[in-house]
Specification:
elongated; 37 helices; 865 residues; 69% helix; mainly alpha
Length: 865
């Protein structure tokens, strides 16, 4: 085995520069040349300077070399006298490179990581690789090891190497199969379905499983597709297989582009801007897999930065979420962009507004009745008129509690049962009105043939009288009813006037008043006042205008429903009932949160479910809305909790707090960071609580009682199983990471042991999402001892170190050192064995070289003779 320095140097020397490298170095060289010209150096000195600093030039042909220098140097005056040796001015080139460090890192990083992994796989030790890195890494050609740019690059490279070594230490195929099975079992419980056992995993669910395994678990596309071929229900479809594999490759590519994103410039395109903001967002929130809500949060950041809204669609083409196999990219992007349309939030109604409206309506009804000769006015039938007002207030969006409080103020608490009865009847009245509006006339009632049948015949044909009643009302609303025998009824004139207002947009009200006055049988009846026609036309006009306004509002409501439906789907194709319930629940929650009146939301969802009986539709919608209200109630509870609790302090000192505080603080902390709640937060909260020693049974109860996500429509008790299964798997994987964790030292000059301990502690916390344990300090202590720090200093820094939420037991530092020294002993034994093998190999090579020299000398003698 070659020495580490020689092996590393060979890999660096064999590096093939990409096509983009020449354009990059041209920029650097031109900047350096300008500075050298300003100092008075001539062409010969500059050529020598560039040849020594630009590694590309040594690989060019003579003609290409001359052509390159002509472009970069251009014309130059003769050199000045008494200039310092140009070879002492390397800091100029280093400074030019430092200004473009992000591009330089992007140029080298992928190949550097590949080289390091190959060295590790060849058996070289991490500490030896770290030392060789300073001399033979790709960036060491340009910067000294004490340069800040080089040290930042080195920290980044070895931090990523730590992560990759954890994964590479496991058998990928076996590991991948266990991950896929675990995710499949969990997702079966994510949304409830009574007949789930007989249904295969949908394409949308399969997409989620494989994308998570690809991005979160770092399983290669080749391994995933190999397992897909033997496990997927859709493996027989070769066209879909090709599509699925291409999508996984695309998703992986887009995440890689985000990971390599650099600070955008004024000339950067929308995709570059998205990648950089997405990378920052993912780092801040410790997110490895993006979802639609994350993309919304990223777009909001862009808009907050005054980024043009018109460029969001193009920016989102860089989103890996849009390219997931189950999504239609164009629909997904449209749904995200449309969520930022320019509309104002609906004003939240206040109880005082309801109180004022109640008193005004009560007074108007009382005056109207008394004007008609009913002397007791409103008191004639207070239950009836209160019910009318209650319906009006509920339709405006006021809550049942608000209406009940108003009635209690008016009649006193001793009338509580009566007041609740009024409100209940108002609610039932509204529901039956909405049932009529949502009713579709069945085929058997769409012709007048049913009117020739008797009641008995209708029953035999299974035609319900209720449907006939609804049909009659629907036709009366759409045609022009009330033409009958009673032509002196006010209803006849009223319907006629309404017909005119509906038929003619340019109607002249004065001419209509004259017509009614001169042609209506009722207008001539005794007891009808002289202003009858005028009052009637004005009354009907107001009613028609109110109806048209409500019709417009309803159209806007349906538009909002359809929009929220698109946002909820995010381009997914939904193929099961539980997911449909979830989407409707999401829509209801969003619309209620935007202050749409409860019954308007109910009407919108009910109208969209006309393919089932009205009874089932109403039962379905009421269940959806009950769940939506519970979700909002729990969200409000979380908001109130974080408003009065220092959640960061609770999380940092979890062992001092009870489960309720830990769970709510974790959810609240995620809510503060992201502005929304999702199932992954329940999983992370559960894993956090499990890791801090709380029992699974008690954590399950927390989710059932407090989680807004668990209360969503489309979920049942299986959701808790889903959360706990993933949480337990997460804990298992984090422990597995800890078991394989390999720390890379900081390698800063003149560093003290306290600084190095803090750096390694940060690396452990970044790599493993678990509460602090003694094992972590053992790993750090082992690394410190390997670097050459004294055992007494290492034990001292362990003893003094303060870790949030971690309580050390007696003789803690001493116990850690004992375990660390045991590890060091094993490492030394392995290295001694390895060193012996290397020496044996060197002796073999030396003997072979001596034999080759002897043979060569013999050949020379023969030729001379």
């Amino acid at each position: 085995m070659l020495s580490i320095n020689l092996a590393f140097k060979r890999k660096t020397d064999n590096y093939e520069f990409p096509e983009a490298a020449e354009a990059f170095f041209i920029q650097i060289d031109k900047e350096a040349v300008e500075r050298l010209k300003e100092k008075g150096y001539g062409r010969t000195d500059i050529e020598t300077y560039l040849s020594r600093n630009n590694p590309l030039l040594s690989r060019m042909s003579d003609s290409k070399f001359a052509e390159y220098l002509d472009e970069v140097i251009g014309s130059v005056e003769a050199a000045s006298n008494n200039l310092p040796d140009i070879n002492t001015l390397d800091e100029i080139y280093e400074d030019c490179l430092a200004q473009k460090k992000d591009s330089l890192v992007e140029l080298y990083e992928a190949n550097e990581m590949e080289n390091l992994m190959e060295l590790c796989e060849s058996g070289y030790e991490i500490p030896d690789i770290v030392k060789a890195f300073d001399k033979h890494s790709l960036l060491s050609r340009h910067f000294a090891r004490d340069n800040n740019v080089f040290n930042e690059y080195k920290d980044r490279i070895f931090s990523n190497l730590t992560q990759k070594l954890v994964i590479s230490s496991m058998d990928e195929k076996e590991y991948a199969l266990s991950v896929l099975k675990s995710r499949e079992e969990a997702i079966m419980n994510k949304y409830h379905n009574s007949d789930r056992g007989s249904i295969t995993i949908s394409k949308a669910e399969e997409s989620s499983i494989y994308c998570s395994s690809l991005v979160v678990d770092k399983i290669s596309v080749d391994t995933l597709m190999e397992l897909w071929d033997s496990n997927s229900e859709y493996a027989s479809d070769s066209e879909y297989r090709s599509f699925f594999e291409s999508k996984l490759n695309k998703v992986q590519e887009l995440y890689k582009e985000i990971d390599n994103a650099v600070m955008p410039t004024r000339k950067s395109g929308p995709q570059s801007v998205y990648r950089y903001i997405a990378r920052t967002y993912m780092q801040e929130n410790k997110v490895s897999l993006l979802c639609g809500r994350d993309d919304k949060a990223i777009c909001k950041r862009l808009l907050d930065m005054k980024y043009p809204k018109s460029l969001l669609s193009e920016a989102l083409t860089a989103s890996p979420v849009a390219e997931e196999p189950s999504r239609q990219p164009s629909k997904y992007i449209s749904a995200i962009v449309e969520s930022f349309r320019d509309i104002g939030e609906r004003t939240k109604l206040q109880p005082d507004d309801a109180k004022k409206a109640y008193m005004t309506l009560r007074q108007n009804i009382d005056e109207s009745l008394k004007k008609k000769g009913i002397t007791k006015g409103f008191e004639t039938n207070e239950d009836y008129y209160d019910c009318i007002i209650a319906k009006i207030l509920l339709k405006q969006g006021h809550s049942q509690d608000t209406v009940e409080n108003i009635l209690s103020d008016q009649y006193g608490m001793d009338k509580k049962a009566r007041n609740q009865g009024v409100i209940m009847n108002a609610v039932l009245s509204i529901k039956y009105e909405q049932a009529i509006l949502a009713f579709n006339i069945p085929e058997s009632l769409q012709t007048r043939a049913f009117m020739t049948k008797s009641f008995k015949e209708l029953e035999e044909d299974n035609i319900s009288i209720r449907d006939v009643y609804y049909t009659y009302i629907k036709e009366r609303m759409s045609l022009n009813p009330s033409i009958g025998e009673n032509l002196i009824s006010e209803s006849v004139d009223r319907d006629a006037v309404e017909f005119f207002f509906n038929a003619f947009d340019d109607l002249d009200k004065n001419e209509l008043i004259k017509t009614i006055s001169s042609a209506s049988p009722r207008a001539f009846m005794s007891g009808i006042g002289p202003d009858y026609s005028k009052d009637l036309v004005n009354e009907v006009s107001a009613r028609v205008q109110d109806y048209k306004s409500k019709d417009k509002d309803f159209a806007e409501l349906i538009k909002e429903y359809n929009l929220q439906h698109g946002l909820a789907l995010e381009g997914l194709s939904i193929d099961n009932q539980a997911m449909s319930e979830y989407q409707d629940g999401y829509i209801a929650t969003r619309m209620l949160k935007r202050n749409y009146p409860f019954f308007d939301v109910r009407n919108a969802i009910l109208t969209n479910h006309q393919n089932i009986s009205i009874d089932k539709a109403q039962e379905y919608v009421d269940n959806i809305l009950a769940k939506a209200e519970e979700v909002l109630k729990r969200e409000t509870a979380i908001e109130e909790y974080i408003g009065k609790t220092d959640v960061t302090s609770v999380l940092n000192n979890a062992k001092k707090h009870d489960l309720n505080d830990c769970y709510k603080s974790f959810l609240g902390n995620m809510y503060l960071k992201k502005g929304f709640l999702q199932s992954s937060m329940d999983i992370r909260a559960s894993a956090f609580c499990l890791a801090h020693g709380f029992s699974e049974e008690n954590i399950r109860e927390q989710i059932k009682q407090f989680s807004p996500i668990a209360a969503e429509a489309g979920r049942d008790e299986n959701y808790v199983d889903y959360c706990m299964a993933i949480a337990n798997e997460k804990i298992r994987k984090e422990n597995e990471k800890l078991e394989h964790l390999c720390l890379v030292p900081h390698q800063k000059d003149e560093r003290n042991i306290e600084e190095e301990y803090e750096f390694l502690q940060y690396e452990v916390e970044k790599a493993v999402e678990l509460p602090w344990t003694m094992t972590m300090d053992v790993i750090i202590a082992t690394s410190l001892l390997e670097q050459g720090y004294a055992a007494i200093d290492t034990e001292d820094v362990l003893d003094k170190a303060k870790i949030k939420g971690f309580i050390k037991n007696e003789n803690y530092a001493k116990k850690v050192m004992e375990q660390a020294q045991q590890r060091i002993k094993k490492i030394v034994e392995f290295r001694d064995l390895n060193a012996g093998q290397v020496k044996q190999l060197e002796r073999t090579i030396e003997r072979k070289n001596d034999n080759d020299k002897d043979k060569k000398n013999d050949k020379k003698k023969d030729s001379n003779q």
